Amino acid sequence: MVTNIAAASYTLAAVAYLVLGVLLLTSWRGRLHGMVLPIACLLSVLWAAALAYQASHDFALSLVTDILEIARNAGWSAFLITLLGLNRDGFFNGRMNPAMSIIVALYVGCVIATFYAHGNLGIFPAHTSDYTNSIITSVAMALLGMILVEQLYRNTPVKQRWGIKFACLGIGGVFAYDFYLYSDALLLRHVNPEIWAARGIVNAFVVPLIAVSAARNPQWSVGITVSRRILFYSAALFGAAAYLLAMAAAGYYLRFFGGSWGTVMQVSFLFGAVVLLMAVLFSGTLRSWLRVFISKHFFSYNYDYREEWLHFTRTLSESGHGLGERVIQALAQLVESPGGSVWIARDSGNFEHVTHWNMPSATGMEPVASSFCQFLEHREWVIDLQEYRTSPEKYSAITLPPWLLAISKAWLVVPLIQHRKLFGFVVLAQPRSKVKLNWEVSDLLKVAGNQAASYLAQHEAANALMVARQFESFNRMSTFVVHDLKNLVSQLSLLLSNAEKHKQNPEFQQDMVETVYLSVQKMKRLLEKLSGSDSAETPAPLSIARLLQEAVKSKSIAEPKPVLEVQDSNLTVYANSTRLERVVGHLIQNAIEATPREGQVRIRLQREQDFAIIEIKDTGHGMSEEFIREKLFKPFVSTKSAGMGIGVFESREYVSELGGKLEVTSRESDGTVFRILLPLCQNVQALNAATVK
User: Among 115, 133, 172, 411, whose Cα sits 20 to 30 Å from the Cα of 369?
Assistant: First the structure.
């Protein structure tokens, strides 16, 4: 009977020390003394477990249990020594103080005496019937422990004894009970079985006292943490294993008592049990409950912030759903919510519903100036709708929108703050398992909401920029079209102004017909371009002399009349005739407009090495170096009252596109020279062939 009591007593002690050791390893952080305390607990676990095993088999003392008892006492003594600071003079460099030397010598002597008592050293004779030396060493270790506890309490300042008094009481109680046990054994020449059996219960009773002091001194633990994910899967695996064992036992009894139906009932029951287990394991509600339970009962904080933030960022960045849905998922997973909806501020002055996930779509709109939105913006609080229904005074008695109260299973309203302005808000559904909205959950949701707001704001800005670029492209095309039309109108206006003066001149009549014809052709090509036809944009080999002749001919009615000089008429370039003619025509038109009637505009075509050179020279008012450098090639800048400021810019862009170069030299009151350098056609074709190869 005593043997069974002893086994249960020491088993209880082993479990108590194991729980304390696990808590120390996972819940608190610490330095050197924090490393010694869990080690002392684990040594106590081994000692109590060995004694429990011994009690259930044989009550006689053994060498293993004696050595483990010495190790346990050494562990607790080392913890007390660390708190006292006796080792800070050089425990690891060989310069121990006298007190440390005595303590180390005592424990070395205890180990030698134990081996001597059991006759296992090999150099001493065996004395298995004499345990006097072993008991004396146990008394000495108990006395040392009580002395260390007394010194620790005495040397601790009065104001700090609050943190260590329960540890001193617990550890001192363990050593005091050992002193009582072995003093009695030393007097009576045998160990009292009842006192020895109660020893395990006494050790189990002191564990809560040590735990209280450890909670008051968080530095008493090592810096080791157990991953929440590992603990989650371990708990799930342990629960599944226990469930399967219970079902296997139930199946065995069904088979045993089921008679001829036993095997059928057993197989059916086990199959149903496995199916039920799979359904439970794949249940989101159960996984949510287990995560919340582990965070609440095994960790000091509800979240592993590193893992949560990585998961949050990964959810926002992944593809497959719209950003609004990803924002809901990222926020919902923080509080085990299955869904939600997003509202974002619009130009209409209202917060409008944009998307939802696993939640019915809501149609409500909320004005930006409403008390609800102003509360979210100024307080930046997460609103608990359930708490609002019971205690509305906590939220400054704001009035919630009727459409929000009408949403079924709505739980939290998370503000999305961007630069201290309310960008939007998210309504989350009730969680799968109960989650209390405390300060930690609220702060995490607010920070996550700010991060989500930056993602949404960037997405909205990107969409607005895309629309703006589309309008910019449209406006750019319209600008060039208007520019071409302006040139045609200017040319026809000039023709009309000269018609009254030269209408009887046959040469002028012929030039007028040709000018009108060319203008019509240009307008047709412009319409083809606007209609989306790509044929006009296709480059091809082009005779540059013929193009210049047509361009000069179209300007022949102007004054001064441009003069063309072709030095080499066989030059061919690879370009689009319409665009290149527009470039040359624009530069000739600029030269004409900048030159007085008595001046000159000359166009020359010549060859320099592998380039065709088009030189347009006028004797007009010219341009300053500053204007050429800073304004000439800048779009939408013009010195003309009706100018668009894009002609020279477009000319340089297209010439560069052809692989050429547009140069300009000018002096004020001394005219301007534009030089267009274009690669000859054979060089372009050779270059293209080399690129293909």
Answer: 411
